[in-house]
Each structure stands twice: as structure tokens, then as C-alpha cells.
Amino acid sequence: MIELTPLTTASAQDDPGRMHEVVIVGSGPAGYTAAIYAARANLAPVVIAGAITAGGALMNTTEVENFPGFPEGVMGPELMDKMQTQAEKFGATVIYDDATSVDLTGEVKTVTTAEGDTYRARAVILANGSAYKELGLEGEKTFGGRGVSYCATCDGFFFRDQHIVVAGG
């Protein structure tokens, strides 16, 4: 039987330089799912959530209708808030800062943030997601989520039987 035990129970904010079991870079669905599983395994995960864009791309999404468990849909920010709450409930610590460098060499991995804190860990999970590329067209930001979409898989359903333009690949 393998027994996983945290190195310490101190808060990540008390001493960012101390050794952690796992640091997760990213606070979207993948990051918070990793945090939930790691926290339930008593690994006291630290989530580097981002300083401004915590919650991932779903924070800019209106209605999410393809996420299991929400047959009527859920607003993106509400879904991310629920995921964060669940991760914290099980013991994850969320840090609102941007990861600026990651060193995965050696036994001890490090994640350095924009504030200059360095988090050391036995494992680092990179769940930093993706970013869509804007075209720079007039009205693009205004109509984001209201006609302008950046996810064909997510939003294609809304445009069924309509004439649309797809840019990109």
C-alpha cells in the first residue's frame, strides 16, 4: 500500500519558499479538477490561479451547456466559482498571482510568480490552458459571446442552420 502524506500543513501564503507536494499552474477546469483530486489525497495542492484572469477562459463565457451535471446550462463564472470552492473545501490553497517561470529539472520543481515568490514542489501540474487569438476587427470585443465566438466545439450548436463565417483553423 502506498501512503501519500503532505510534507507540512502550513499555508502556502505563510511561506511560499517551503516545500510543497504539488503546485498547479492554472485555474481553469483542468487546474481545479487536479486540485480537487490532489487535495482529496491529502497533498495540500497550491494553485497558481493568475493575478487577473483566474478561472480560465470560462470566466469570459456566458452559458456553458456541454458540462456534465448542468442539463439546463451554467454560466462560465458560476461554474468556475463552484470548482474553486470545491477545491478549497478539500484543502487546496489558491494564490492570485501569475506564474512567470517554471523549472521542472531535478527532484525539486519550482514555480516563480510575478510577485517574486518561488514555490518549490515535488510535482508541478501545468494546466495553463489556451488563449484564443483575436482578429482585431471592429466590434469584435463588443460582440464577444453575443455572436463572436472563439470555440467552434463549444458554440457551434448555437449557430445551427445559420450562415456564419469561420476564421482560423
Automatic annotation (TrEMBL):
Residues 21-169 form the FAD/NAD(P)-binding domain. Keywords: Flavoprotein, Oxidoreductase. The keyword Oxidoreductase applies. Pfam families: Pyr_redox_2 (PF07992). Coiled coil: none annotated. It comes from the Bacteria. PANTHER family: THIOREDOXIN REDUCTASE 1-RELATED-RELATED (PTHR48105). This is Thioredoxin reductase (NADPH).
